[in-house]
Amino acid sequence: RIAYVNGRYLPHSDAAVHIEDRGFQFADGVYEVCEVRQGMIVDLTRHLTRLDRSLSELRMASPMSRAALTTVIREVLRRNRVRNGLFYLQITRGVARRDHYFPSQDTPLTVTITAKSTDPSIMTRKYANGIKVITVPENRWDRVDIKTVGLLPNVLAKQQAKEAGAQDAIFVDRNGIVLEGASSNVWIVTADGELVTRPAEYGILRGITRTTALDVTAKLGLTVVERDFKVDEMMAAREVFLTSATGICVPIVEIDGKPVANGHPGTASSAIRDAFFDVAEKTAI
Ligand code: PMP
């Protein structure tokens, strides 16, 4: 495997950053994960636009033009022979003696990109069987709209899910309002048949897959209501599913040990998934 580190393509085993990197010291950095299918990068423009937003919210300049970044991403994918898989891109505020204040303006940002192939059969199984999740109390900061590498609450929540025999965790606020998964957005089809996902103005990351799934539903003629919903409404739902770049649209069949509806994946999630790749932007490697 080959990784990109600050202008160089290195064997994965040699790809390293300095111990005084601000990503390592302070989680002072942002990232993106993009899905690759059949040799096509999915929704690259939207991911790079969100990256620009994350950088600007942390008051970091773009390290290179979008065209240059796209060239490097393609090169990493090519060198790793990825046709189905993903790339991971991370940008931190660079290397500087540990001090909370921003380093001097001329400190170069650290840019790293890795890529890997994934086994499509793992996702096929999740689509067929659905996954189990647990709910966990929200304990993150209130800028989760920025895609920063500070993911400790998400890590702890996912591990808790794993130890409970589940595959993912859903953050719930103190009023019982469902926020998002540890690395995904949450959708429900209510007992009345209403397709709902919560607004993305605050409290969650505005998932790129969520945005494209909204385009998909429009194309399919499905009405989506963007509103808050609580845990009890989710537990009584006909269907619950998650969207994320790597999972696209994954049905949930059990929450906190209780089945969702009849305990089988529903039809809305499969309809969105089936039309997703046609609607999404595709950029050839
Ligand atoms: N919420 C969180 C907290 C995430 O980490 C992710 C995955 N990056 C998402 C939502 C889904 O976003 P996307 O569809 O862009 O992958």
Unreliable parts:
none
User: Would you count the extended β strands for me?
Assistant: 16
Number of helices: 8
From the 3D structure, determine the CATH topology of the largest domain. D-amino Acid Aminotransferase, Chain A, domain 2
Determine Rg (CA atoms, Å).
19 Å
Residue share in β-strands: 25-35%
Count of spatially separate domains: 2
Q: What is the structural class?
A: alpha+beta
Keywords: Amino-acid biosynthesis, Branched-chain amino acid biosynthesis
Catalytic activity: L-valine + 2-oxoglutarate = 3-methyl-2-oxobutanoate + L-glutamate; L-leucine + 2-oxoglutarate = 4-methyl-2-oxopentanoate + L-glutamate; L-isoleucine + 2-oxoglutarate = (S)-3-methyl-2-oxopentanoate + L-glutamate
Protein name: Probable branched-chain-amino-acid aminotransferase
Function: Acts on leucine, isoleucine and valine.
